[in-house]
């Protein structure tokens, strides 16, 4: 009988991360649902201490993320401190956590990393006049941090061909994240979690892909 798979989800206290953790647990995995208090992805000591307490890992879901809000993220009025904070969580946080857990993932028979990105990171959609992103103002640092996360995903995937390493676009969901930006959205956290759960559980997963639950997302 095969061993129960172990998954770590960051930012799992609420929103899409909580829904990913619940979904993986419901599918029989042992899930480490890490909240910020357990594992602050911006803090070297916190991440190293948490990693030192784990002895196995099959699936890492880098979900923790922030928008940074709208203030200081408008082109022409950019506040570098705000944008640095966004990058610290959404990009450097992912590198910090991934590097800390790679030694365990490399021992897994079926290692997977799922980076929760965003459709707003798509350069194609942002420059396609037929797509609503082309005309819409989005906070400056947030989509840039997620576009960088996508490139990070590809670089890790190339470096570790034995792993499945992908980025997801959860779609705009009515979590606190959206409410804090003044958005009212019908799509639920569970809807946004579905693609990460699929990548974590499917047979023959892709690697170096950017996907939503509707299929590949153009980079
Ligand atoms: N909602 C959307 O429309 C949408 C669309 C595309 C992509 N996403 C992405 O989906 C992911 C989850 O978003 P969400 O909508 O679920 O947002 P959310 O409801 O605001 O939840 C974000 C989670 O990330 C955690 N977090 C933030 N900074 C952290 C840190 N430094 N260390 C550890 N955990 C931290 C939060 O912890 P606390 O509770 O302690 O703050 C919270 O659990 C994010 O990466 C986001 O960019 C969301």
UniProtKB/TrEMBL annotation:
SUPFAM superfamilies: NAD(P)-binding Rossmann-fold domains. GO terms for molecular function: oxidoreductase activity. Pfam families: adh_short. The keyword Lyase does not apply. Keywords: NADP, Oxidoreductase. InterPro entries: NAD(P)-bd_dom_sf, SDR_fam. Gene3D superfamilies: NAD(P)-binding Rossmann-like Domain (3.40.50.720). The keyword Transmembrane does not apply. It comes from the Bacteria. Belongs to the short-chain dehydrogenases/reductases (SDR) family. This is NAD(P)-dependent dehydrogenase, short-chain alcohol dehydrogenase family.
């Amino acid at each position: 009988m095969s061993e129960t798979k172990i998954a770590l989800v960051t930012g799992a206290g609420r929103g899409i991360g909580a829904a990913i953790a619940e979904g993986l647990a419901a599918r029989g995995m042992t899930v480490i649902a890490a909240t910020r208090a357990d594992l602050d992805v911006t803090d070297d000591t916190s991440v190293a201490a948490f990693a030192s307490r784990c002895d196995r890992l099959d699936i890492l879901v880098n979900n923790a993320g922030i928008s940074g809000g709208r203030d200081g993220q408008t082109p022409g009025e950019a506040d570098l401190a705000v944008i640095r904070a966004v990058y610290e969580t959404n990009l450097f946080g992912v590198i910090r956590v991934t590097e800390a857990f790679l030694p365990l993932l490399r021992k897994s028979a079926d290692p997977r990393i799922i980076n929760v990105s965003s459709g707003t990171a798509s350069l194609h959609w942002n420059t396609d006049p037929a797509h609503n992103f082309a005309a819409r103002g989005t906070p400056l640092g947030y989509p840039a941090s997620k576009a960088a996360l996508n490139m990070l995903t590809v670089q890790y995937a190339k470096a570790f061909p034995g792993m499945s390493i992908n980025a997801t676009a959860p779609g705009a969901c009515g979590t606190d994240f959206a409410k804090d930006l003044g958005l009212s959205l019908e799509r639920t956290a569970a809807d946004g979690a579905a693609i990460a759960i699929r990548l974590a559980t499917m047979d023959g997963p892709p690697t170096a892909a950017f996907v939503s639950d509707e299929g590949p997302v153009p980079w």
